[in-house]
Amino acid sequence: MNDDEDRALPAELAKLQQEHRDLDAAIDALHHSPAPDLLRLQRLKKRKLQLRDRIAFIEDQITPDIIA
Q1: Are 27 and 45 in contact (CB under 8 A)?
Q2: What is the residue range of 52's domain?
Q3: Is the residue at 39 inside a domain?
Q4: HSE value, Cβ hemisphere, 13 Å, CA-based, for 59
């Protein structure tokens, strides 16, 4: 990784983590609504899973490899 990537990854990680928390709140609110839109709920959950995967990838890139 170069210096630009070293600075960009933590910023992207923070942005994705915030979006993940926002989606969690939206899913919870939609789930507890009187007539939840199941298709929208499914799409939000799918996006949340995509974010989780991207967050895990970035965290792996940030964390240095330790050879045991």
Answers
A1: yes
A2: 3-60
A3: yes
A4: 9
Q: What sign for the dihedral angle of Cα 53, 51, 18, 12?
A: positive
Tell me, yes or no, whether 48 lies in a domain.
yes
Q: What distance in Å separates the CA atoms of residue 25 and residue 40, rounded to the nearest whole number?
A: 14
Q: How many domains does the chain have?
A: 1
Residue 67, H or E segment: none
DSSP 3-61: HHHHHHHHHHHHHHHHHHHHHHHHHHHHHTSSS--HHHHHHHHHHHHHHHHHHHHHHHH
Q: For residue 25, is it within any domain? A: yes
Query: What are the pLDDT tens digits along the chain (68 aa)?
Result: 566 767 899 999 999 999 999 999 999 999 999 998 999 999 999 999 999 999 999 999 988 777 76
